[in-house]
C-alpha cells in the first residue's frame, strides 16, 4: 500500500529534495539535481524501486514536526520500551549533496533497523556495493556514486543493505549518505552534529526575515520556506514540484513531470518574494528568467530546465507501476514545445514590476522586450494551447489573449513611467485591438460571462485573473457576472475546479481534483470585491488542507479528502503567500499587479538595483 501523499515531508538543500514518509522511509530522491534520475523511487512503485528506511523494529506511535523555522524534520517514535527521535535534513555543501539521519535516544531503549535500497535510473539500475577500508559502503552505477557512513553495522541481504541497532536514552547514532560522481575521489566525511547546527542556523536566520501576515504568519513562513527548498540555488530557478507523475486523479492518466520551471508563475513569484521580504530571491528568480528566455523571440518556451535547458523530451518509465497504479509515469514534459501566449505577458509584467520595485535599472532588458513585442505583434492572432497545456486542438483561449494585452500594457506603462523609447502609438493601438477582440469574442452574451475560449460556452477558473491583471476593474458588470458564473458552475464542494474536464476536450479522460491555486485566485477576487468575510473563510478552508507539516500538493480531491498531484507544489504555496498578504497587508500584491494607482507605496526599500 502506497503512503498517502499528505503523509510525506520534504527535506532539501536547494539543489535536490527528498520525500520522507511518516514511517521513516525516504521514498523519493533525485541526485544530484531536482531533475536527475531518481535513486529512491518507491513513491512511484514499491520498496524494490529504491528507498531508505530508518525505523523501530516493532510498531510504534509516531509524531513529527519541523524544527521551528527550519526544514529539519523530527520524527518521534515511541514504544512501551523506549522512545527516540529521528532527525532528517540535507546540509548545504558546495561540492556534494548529502542526507543526514540522526537517531537520538530520548527514553529507555528502542530497537531500530535500517534498510537501504539504492536503485539508480528511476528504480531500474542495481548498483555495485563494496565496503571501503574505513568501513563505509560505496555504491556505484555508471556515473553515480553514493557513500554510506554510520557506526551501525551494515550487511548485504537480497540486494539490499540492512542493519539493526538499539538506541538508549542520551545516545546519538548518525547515518550519512553522500552523493558524488563515480569518477571522482570518495568525498570527505563531515561531522553530522556540526552539520546539523549549521543547517539549523541557516534556516532559522533565513526564515526570520519573513514579513508577518497576521494570524497566517506561520503558514506564510512555511510556504516561503518550501519555495526556497524548491529553488535550485546555483541558478535561481524554482521547480514547480520535486516530483513527477503523482496523479491528479488516483488511477488516472493526468500524471506529469513538474521538476522544471514554468514562466506562468513568474510575476506572482516575484511579487510573493518581495512582499515576503526576500529581495535577493526575487532578484535571483528574475535573473534566471532573463537568462532562460534569452535568444530569438520565436523560440520562447513556456517552461525550461532549472539551468535554463530547453530540451525536456518526454518519455515513459514503463517498468514503474505508478503511484497507486496511476500510469503512465512520465519523465520530461512535452508541453515545453507548446505555444502559450500568456508567457509574453508574464515576461513583460516581471520586467515592469522589477522596475517599479527597484530590482533593476530602468533600461534593463528593454531592447529584448521590444524584440519580443515585435514577435508578439505577428502571432497574437494565432490559437494556442492555453495556460493548462491542453493536448487537444489549439484554440483562441480568452486568458491567453488577455495576457497578450498585458504584454503590451505593461511595456507601455514602463515606457511612460521610466522614459523608455519605443513605438508607443503602435503598441497602444495593438493593446486596444486585443482588448476589443477579447470583449467581443471572449464574452458569451447568451451566458452573460467571459468564457474559456472564443465562441465557447465553457467556463475556466483562469478568468478570475482578468481583474487581477488589470484587464477590467472588478466592478465591471461583465467581471461580476463571470465571477458569479464560476461560483455557480466551477465551485464544487467548496473548491474551484480549473474547468469541466467532462465537457472540455483536452485529449485526456475526464476527472481531476480541485486545482488549489484557482481557489486562492477566488480569495484574491473576493478581496478586490471587498467581500472580506468570504475571502477569509475560503482562505482558512484552503490553509486547513495543508498536511501536519504545512505542505500542499497541486490539487485536492474533496470526495476522497486527499491531496493529489505533484507534491509539494510551488504554485499552491505561492498562491497561499500572495493571498495571505492580500488579506493582511496594506500594500496588496493583487492591487500591485492590477496596476491600482491608489495602492499605497511599499514601506520597505528594496536593495540597490543590479547594474
Which tags fit this structure?
single chain; 611 residues; alpha+beta; Beta-galactosidase, Chain A, domain 5; Glycosyltransferase; 2 domains; 15-stranded antiparallel β-sheet; three-stranded antiparallel β-sheet; 28 strands; 31% helix; elongated
Task: Give structural notes.
With 611 residues, the protein is an alpha+beta fold. It folds into two domains: 5-184, Beta-galactosidase, Chain A, domain 5 (Distorted Sandwich), CATH 2.70.98.50; 221-249 and 257-593, Glycosyltransferase, CATH 1.50.10. 31% of the residues lie in helices and 21% in strands. The protein contains 15 helices and 28 strands. The strands form seven sheets. The protein has a 15-stranded antiparallel sheet that branches. A hairpin with a 5-residue loop joins strand 10 and strand 11 (137-141). The radius of gyration is 25 Å and the shape is elongated. It starts with 7 loop residues before the first strand and ends in an 18-residue tail after the last helix. Mean pLDDT is 94; it is low at 597-611.
Topology:
Layout: E1 8-12, E2 17-21, E3 25-30, E4 38-40, E5 51-56, E6 61-66, E7 73-78, E8 82-89, E9 97-117, H1 120-123, E10 128-131, E11 137-141, E12 144-149, E13 155-157, E14 160-168, E15 172-181, H2 192-207, H3 217-229, E16 231-232, E17 237-238, E18 261-262, H4 266-276, H5 279-293, E19 303-304, E20 315-316, E21 330-331, H6 342-356, H7 366-379, H8 398-418, H9 424-441, E22 443-444, E23 449-450, H10 465-468, H11 477-489, E24 491-492, E25 495-496, E26 514-515, H12 516-528, H13 532-543, E27 555-557, E28 562-564, H14 570-584, H15 589-593
Antiparallel strand pairs: 1-2, 2-3, 3-4, 3-5, 5-9, 6-7, 7-8, 8-9, 9-14, 9-15, 10-11, 11-12, 12-15, 13-14, 16-17, 18-19, 20-21, 22-23, 24-25, 26-27, 27-28
Helix pairs in contact: 3-14, 4-5, 4-6, 4-14, 6-7, 6-8, 7-8, 8-9, 12-13, 12-14, 13-14
